[in-house]
Amino acid sequence: MMMVLVIAVSLAYTNTIDSSAEGAPEIVSFEGIYTYERMLLDAQALSTYYPDVVSYELRAQTALGHQILVLRLGNPSAPRQILVHASIHGREYYVTPLVMKMAEYYAANEKELLSTTCFTIVPMVNPDGVSIAQSGAIAASDANYQAFIGFIGHYSAWKSNANGVDINRNFPIGFGLAETRMPSNSYAFYEGIAPSSEVETTVLEQLLSENSFDCYLAYHMRGNLIYFYTPTCSPEMFAMSQLIAATVHNSTGYRIDVDLSDTHPNGSFADYAQIMCGVPGCTIECGTTLPPAGADQVAGFYSRNLYSWKNVASLFASEASN
Ligand SMILES: [Zn+2]
Q1: Which of 29, 189, 293, 313 is packed most tightly, with the most Cβ within 10 A?
Q2: Cα of 85 to ligand 1 centre, how many Å?
Q3: What is the whole-number distance in angstroms between the Cα of residue 220 and the centre of ligand 1?
Q4: Helix (H) or strand (E) holding 116
Q5: Distance between CA atoms of 228 and 237, rounded to whole angstroms?
Q6: How far apart are the CA of 175 and the centre of ligand 1, in A?
Q7: How far is the centre of ligand 1, averaged over its atoms, from the C-alpha of 237 (Å)?
Q8: How remote is the CA of residue 92 from the centroid of ligand 1, in Å?
Q9: pLDDT tens-digit profile of 190-246?
Q10: 285 classed as catalytic
Q11: How do 68-73 and 54-59 pair as beta strands?
Q12: How far does residue 88's CA lie from ligand 1's centre (Å)?
């Protein structure tokens, strides 16, 4: 009986869902490699076709000359504010088309939700890392960066930015305390010379300081898991993040993983958001296989995660409190 139920649930997750409203074009495609340039073109197209609910801006400038895309989905002054980010780790770039396609679906089909909820989406926090993971050292036109990246190698495993810093360890809480770490700039596991030394880090910090987010959803790969616990967070933060994680679990079927043996923060975005900014949320680890393998997973990520945004939004009040 149990087996039958499991099969029924997994079939429901893999249904193909048409993202577009009647007569609207399909903008975001899962075909081929989803590059930074494709993402920008899709952001432009989304804001053109759905100007009432989609806008975007470009922030900062990375070492390799990319500006970081911030997409606004919904009424910017809506009472509910949710931060979504993806691809903070370069090699996990399948989650960028995931959140872009989800944005397209919501723009086409969820106008009422978007009048009371604004999603601030950073679909590719780390465009340099994504470009390196996708194309290697030639992602850099600068000779010094090309030589550094070529010396390090491990392109398809590249989590860091082009400076060899893991953005998800560069936040100013528990900085340098991760158990497995590299002592210097590398493709992964190095926290940087100082907290917030990287522009990718400061863009997320700025968004957290400029907005009153009800929660965040951070998209990573892999494991089909949800994390929500940050060591030393308050009981209230634990409870709220647990509720958000449970809502994502109920929407996606991903398992919640809690490791209470962690005793301290380690410079991650989650540590910073929850403990320093008071914003609860969870990390969603999609899939089983890292790029460039398993490209056919992305459509499954989409159908599985699609309704989680509105289910998470429903946890928060839809009217301004004052
Ligand atoms: Zn990751």
Answers
A1: 313
A2: 11
A3: 4
A4: helix 111-116
A5: 10
A6: 17
A7: 22
A8: 6
A9: 999 999 999 999 999 999 999 999 999 999 999 999 999 999 999 999 999 999 999
A10: yes
A11: antiparallel
A12: 7
Could you tell me which residues are beta bridge partners of residue 121? 71, 84
Cα–Cα dist 106/112, whole Å:
10
Residue type, 215: C
Catalytic annotation, pick one of 104, 198, 200, 285: 285
| pLDDT at res. 16 | 52
Angle at 242 between CA 222 and CA 112, to 5 degrees: 85
* Separation of CA 117 and ligand 1 centre (Å): 26
What is the distance, to the nearest Å, from the Cα of residue 235 to the centroid of all Cα atoms in its chain? 25
Going along the chain from its start, the domains and CATH numbers come out as 29-313 (3.40.630.10)
Query: 10 Å Cβ neighbour count for 110?
Result: 18
User: Cβ(212)–Cβ(279) under 8 Å?
Assistant: no
Alpha-carbon distance values, 302 to 55, 119, 214, 310 (Å): 22, 17, 23, 14
Tell me which amino acid residue 258 is: V
> Which amino acid is located at 26 in the chain?
E
Distance between CA atoms of 266 and 231, rounded to whole angstroms? Answer: 9
Tokens of 86: 């993806």
Residues in contact with 233: Cβ distance below 8 Å, sequence separation at least 6, in sequence order: 241, 274, 275
Residue with tokens 């899939």: 287
* DSSP structural state of residue 213: -
- Report residue 151 CA to chain centroid gap: 28
> pLDDT by residue (tens digit) across 35-67?
999 999 999 999 999 999 999 999 999 999 999
**Is 34 a residue whose pLDDT tops 60?**
yes
